[in-house]
Design a protein that fits this description.
two-stranded antiparallel ribbon; eight-stranded mixed sheet; 16 strands; alpha/beta; pyruvate-formate lyase- activating enzyme; 350 residues
Amino acid sequence: MGRCNLCGKNSLEISDTIGFCANCIRKHPEETLPIIEQAHRKSRRLFNLPEDSPQTENGIPCNLCIRRCRIPDGRRGYCGLWSNLNGSLVGATRHSAPVSWYLDPLPTNCVAGFTCTGNRIRGAYNLAVFYEACNLNCLYCQNWHYRRTNLKRVSHTKEVLKFITHKTACICYFGGDPGPFAPHAIHISKEAIKLKDNIMICWETNGAENFNVLKEMAQLSLQTGGIVKIDIKAFSPAIYRALCHIPGDEIYENLKRLASYLLEKRESPPPLLVSTLLVPGYVDEEELYGIANFIASINPEIPWALLAFHPHFILTDLPTTSKTHAQKALKIAKEAGLKQVNIGNVHLLR
């Protein structure tokens, strides 16, 4: 049972890690967010990651994502991957990066599985490529364990490409997030297409890339019949920032621009999907109404995957998503006019 330190409300769906209920975060961001900020900073210190986006006046600019870090000499950007080494920006190259991968038999539990044609292929594989850094700091990150590697495990592109065979139907980049590794992932994709002309390229990303980078990633999905899956965390900037250490407004702008670009070029199979984790107490009805209506305002045919939450990382004091929460989310999606909606991770629903 958590307690809101502002209004005093007690609930199983209030996290003591966050310290406030969703309503107080939305209504009083100036009072709540500076305190929640400390939870983010503490979680990053555990892994020797920068506590905030460096903005040193004479630092080297990194423009891969919307954080636009300006990195001082000898220091790292927010994602922990890119650093300023004697005046040069150093991180993942086209040929090497901290990455792991595995072959996942199809059909698999892909976020877009309910709408993806590739997931219906039997006897084939998805090459799942996992990148070990991220430019967000989600307090509930389900893959947070990669931070323990501290970017020491570096693999060559050729090692990944060995797994492209006649049975490899698709490649999906996830993590962490593929955004900070875009030069590497784009290069792998282009080489994979040369090796196999009917391989699909898909992305699971938080959508925080520089839009030109995101567009280049999306072009590879368009070319190959793949999907760009953007995980939208919340609707209000205050809840977004509380959960993920970023306001999210530019992510919404990226989503809108990307949808306009993709949907004018391909309708089927869907080139774009939005996913949202149903975090109890925080991604509540107000947040869901905002997300659903935003998607519908762009195009009601955009698929929306609603995913059940399980406590992870430092946000371990919330319950898993309830069936009632999931059903309310589904109702909100339908009321907004969305045509393709799916509830994922149903085995977690309580």
